[in-house]
Specification:
Keywords: Repeat, WD repeat. With about 900 residues, this protein is of the alpha+beta class. It contains 14 helices and 44 strands. Strands 5-6-9-1-2-3-4-7-8 form a nine-stranded antiparallel β-sheet, with helices on one face. Strands 13-12-11-10-16-15-14 form a seven-stranded antiparallel β-sheet, with helices on one face. It has a four-stranded antiparallel β-sheet with strand order 17-44-43-42, with no helix packed on it. α4 runs antiparallel to α5. The longest helix is centred in the N-terminal third of the chain and has 17 residues. About 40% of the residues are buried.
Length: about 900
């Protein structure tokens, strides 16, 4: 049995109504006269003046705290030597013993007389009278009270006596009004920051400490947060694992503090998420750790119940006496959202969706709401439910009382689509066991609600949590978890991909749908905020393309750790295997070695092919030559004159031997590099051959030309069958690039006007069309089910008709010449000006650059060796061809 110790003050902000504001407290004598019975009682204590209630906290600990709603006052306020009024309801909060439902004293006639001991009675009377008028006349009570209170708060100053040392220097010259955010409560105060400590001084004495002090050296990570639909939050993660969350008056103030702390503490940058992803993929951190990091990056916080961390429901077997983690039937299908797990229910959702006006949604309820979180945590944090439910626990039959029963409800009930919370995979079982001996009521079957009923395969709550965690870390879940990440944090969260995945929620649940700051009507603003807060919010979308799967674990490799071990382990202590993290460490320039093969060609290198088995590089150039380069010895092995005109494009017809080479001489040369001889010359064009794609399986060569023709030829291993020439399409503009899917089922064709068309190779008909704002198409790349379209300064990725990614290169850095995709996660982009940028496709962000950034240093001269034209990735090397004929081999 747990005992509850009494602090000097029994008052808690959890006693306020939802969104109610705390205004002032005063010491007073309070006399209560029962007008029906004629008896009376006089008590000393604290009166807490709030926006909807007066809360009386008697000095005598055995007496309950009382809530008096202004709307229950039946007579006008009177003032003599006290403030008096009559009221018809009093709510009692008993603080002796475990938290319990409030006691409602209804249909009473009680006269209340408040005699302030130290405060000016006239000022107190005027304040209470004004708040009473607002409650009786206004709909937007909190908004009106905010105006009433703001002038007074602006006069409050930080108490400099709290500063610990005279050697401390302010990081920000002015103090700031902020709110400290905790689950369901907010505390207004002043933030004062020095070079050593962050000080938070609450406006009112509602906590035991008059000033919260946060040593900067104890801060582990800072996160910017979206709070109340605005980018005004800042969450501080301490080395101990504790969090402190502040909301500022506006985004500018938040940014000012954030920038002031840069350099003092670790800033959780997007590149850190890339590192964590790699650590997860390679098995260096657990599934639990990675999901916690995604939640943190996705604006989820345990301090904000409207955006609480979300975890996947994993297990679906609640009938067996033993849990088999090697049986796929034990696990939920992580490719589907909760609402799609029951086919019959999903069909009903779709029927409603079809009849619905825009904006359509499948699910009217969300997978994460404050109500769900509070329901799960009622045994651990009963004060949450008592606050949200106006001093009551939910009806016993609706409480969280059975793991199996809750699962059945989630699978079958159209209004319950819950995912889980982190506590289901942690060590603390207090949310499952009624350790406080709370009176949660009696169900209709006459059974008392106590501990949560566990599955047959768990002998106790600790065992249940251990098995649930083992399921999360199991091989099956590890292999499937990236699909769930796509739904919650990734590219299936919104748009056409969400529709295809049956993952569409109400439009207000998505970040950025409503700009709350732009709403001028306070009632509308409050209504939208309340709707979003009550019905849930989606996390920030972290990934715009498919999340990569986890690498297969080595035999016997274990990455399971207890939550306590995770809390004790700082990020810098995680043993990072550097291989694969090369692009996340671009600031470490000494990890690269640049070898330059000068003047491999006399002029511009126009295209190249790496022969990986032989470690050779085949290049062609504007000088009409083909060169074979040894990538180990950094020497030119062979040099052949192919044409008097510029050679424009090269593809392999027969591995490591026969190549098709397009030229500005309106020809295709078939060339054997082993013998150094032309096998064939094809003259079927009226202008330069600009692009070639060889479909190896189909033995078909696709050609594009500046004469606006798109053709196909059948091929043998050694030559092109010219009599099989067939026009696929007569283009309107000069064709600049052609690409094909790996399975050769589709080609994409781009032109000088920025138009791109995809064509099926089964019937050679057009499928989709895209445009890139009139820029010339530099390159096209198929990536899984998407198409990467590269213009002079833009890079976009499309999936069917929807745009997934959008990157831009500053014009000062030059025109894009080539783009590569590395390990399905990164874009490597080169320009004519020698600028090489690395982008994360998952995060849609720039990670850094190699060589020079001309955006920040526009007056620098370009090194001739670094006027890049083409790139290729080889084992631990980036090969860059240059406009002056040199080849850079950047090794790492």
């Amino acid at each position: 049995m747990i005992t509850f110790s009494q602090s000097k003050s029994r008052f808690s902000l959890y006693y306020l109504e939802e969104s109610e504001k705390y205004l002032q407290d005063l010491s007073a004598k309070v006399r209560q006269i029962n007008m029906m019975k004629g008896d009376e009682r006089l008590e000393r204590g604290k009166v807490h003046i709030c926006s909807r209630t007066l809360i009386f906290e008697p000095e005598r600990q055995e007496l309950p705290i009382q809530k008096l709603f202004y709307k229950m006052i039946t007579t006008p306020l009177k003032q003599s030597n006290c403030i008096s009024f009559r009221i018809k309801r009093i709510i009692e909060i008993h603080t002796q013993g475990p938290p319990s439902p409030y006691v409602y004293l209804d249909d009473i006639d009680m006269e209340i007389q408040i005699e302030p001991l130290f405060d000016n009675i006239k000022i107190v009377f005027e304040l209470i009278e004004r708040i009473l008028q607002i409650n009786q006349q206004k709909h937007d009570v909190e908004g009106e009270v905010e105006k009433l209170d703001s002038e007074k708060l602006q006069k409050v100053r930080f108490n400099m006596s709290f500063v610990e040392s005279v050697s401390e220097k302010p990081l920000i010259q002015k103090e700031m009004l902020v709110r400290r955010i905790m689950p369901l409560i907010q505390t207004k105060g002043i933030l004062y920051i020095t070079n050593k400590i962050i000080y938070f001084q609450p406006f009112f004495k509602v906590t035991l400490k008059p000033c919260k002090k946060i040593p900067i050296e104890e801060i582990k990570i800072l996160y910017k947060r979206r709070f109340e639909l605005m980018d005004i939050g800042l969450e501080i993660i301490l080395n101990s694992g504790k969090t402190i969350y502040f909301a500022f008056e506006n985004q500018e103030r938040m940014e000012e503090v954030y920038k002031a702390l840069i350099g003092k503490v670790t800033i959780e940058a997007e590149t850190s998420l890339e590192k964590m992803q790699y650590l997860w993929q390679s098995g260096q951190i657990s599934n639990f750790e990675y999901l916690m990091r995604l939640n943190q990056a996705g604006n989820r916080s345990t301090s904000d119940l409207t955006q609480y961390p979300v975890f996947p429901l994993i297990i679906v077997d609640y009938e067996s006496s033993e849990l088999d983690l090697n049986n796929p039937a034990t696990f939920r299908d992580l490719k589907k959202p909760i609402g799609a797990l029951n086919e019959k229910r999903l069909k009903e959702f779709w029927n409603r969706y079809q009849e619905m006006p825009a904006p359509k949604f499948l699910y009217g309820t969300h997978y994460s709401t404050p109500g769900y979180v509070i329901g799960y945590l009622v045994r651990q944090k009963p004060q949450y439910m008592l606050k949200l439910q106006s001093g009551k626990f939910d009806k016993p039959d609706r409480l969280f009382k059975s793991i199996k029963g809750d699962f059945k409800n989630i699978i079958n009930n159209p209004t319950s689509l819950k995912e889980l919370i982190p506590e289901f995979f942690m060590d603390d079982d207090s949310f499952l066991v009624n350790k406080f001996n709370l009176d949660l009521g009696i169900r209709q079957n006459q059974k008392k609600v106590g501990d949560v009923k566990l599955p047959k395969w768990a002998s106790n709550a600790k065992e249940y949590l251990r098995l649930n965690r083992m399921a999360l870390e199991s091989e099956y879940v590890s292999n499937q978890l990236h699909h769930w990440i796509d739904l919650i944090f990734g590219y299936k969260q919104r748009g056409p991909n969400a529709v295809e995945a049956a993952n569409i929620f109400h439009y207000l649940t998505y970040e950025g749908t409503v700009q709350i700051s732009s709403l001028t009507d306070p009632i509308e603003r409050q209504a939208i905020a309340c709707q979003i807060n009550e019905f849930g919010q989606c996390p920030k979308q972290l990934f715009k393309i498919e999340h990569p799967p986890k690498y297969a674990l080595r035999s016997g490799q274990m990455i399971y750790k207890s939550v306590e071990q995770i809390k004790q382990q700082n990020e810098e202590e995680i043993p990072i295997n550097v291989e694969g993290l090369i692009w996340e460490n671009l600031d470490k320039k000494d990890q690269f070695t640049n070898k330059v093969i000068s003047k491999a060609h006399k002029t511009n290198i126009t295209d190249m092919v790496v022969l990986e088995k032989k470690n050779l590089l085949v290049t062609i150039g504007q000088d009409g030559f083909l060169k074979v380069i040894d990538l180990k010895e950094f020497t030119v092995l062979k040099s052949f004159k192919v044409d008097e005109f510029c050679l424009s494009v090269i593809v392999v017809l027969k591995q490591d031997e026969i190549f098709a080479i397009g030229s500005w001489g309106s020809q295709i040369h078939v060339f054997n590099i082993n013998y150094g001889s032309k096998v064939q010359v094809v003259q079927r064009f009226n202008n330069s051959v600009s692009s070639l794609v060889y479909l190896q399986k189909k033995k078909i060569l696709i050609t594009g030309s500046w004469d606006c023709s798109l053709k196909k030829f059948e091929c043998s291993e050694n030559q092109i069958k010219q009599d099989t020439e067939e026009m696929i399409d007569d283009w309107e503009a000069q064709i600049t690039h052609i690409a094909a899917t790996d399975d050769e089922s589709m080609i994409a064709v781009g032109d000088v006007d920025g138009k791109v068309i995809t064509i099926s190779t089964s019937n050679w008909t057009q499928q989709n069309q895209f445009e890139i704002n009139g820029e010339k198409i530099v390159k096209l790349l198929f990536f899984k089910t998407s198409l990467l379209v590269v213009g002079d300064t833009q890079i976009k990725m499309f999936n069917n008709t929807s745009q997934l990614l959008d990157f831009k290169i500053d014009k000062n850095n030059g025109i894009i010449t080539d783009v590569l995709i590395d390990r399905e996660k990164y874009l490597v982009v080169s320009t004519k000006k020698g600028y090489v940028a690395i982008f994360s496709m998952l995060l849609e962000s720039k990670l850094g650059h190699l060589f020079t950034d001309y955006q920040t240093q526009p007056d620098l001269m370009v090194n001739q060796d670094q006027q890049f034209t083409k790139m290729s990735l080889q084992d631990k090397a980036l090969v860059l061809a240059s406009q002056n004929g040199s080849v850079n081999i950047l090794q790492y």
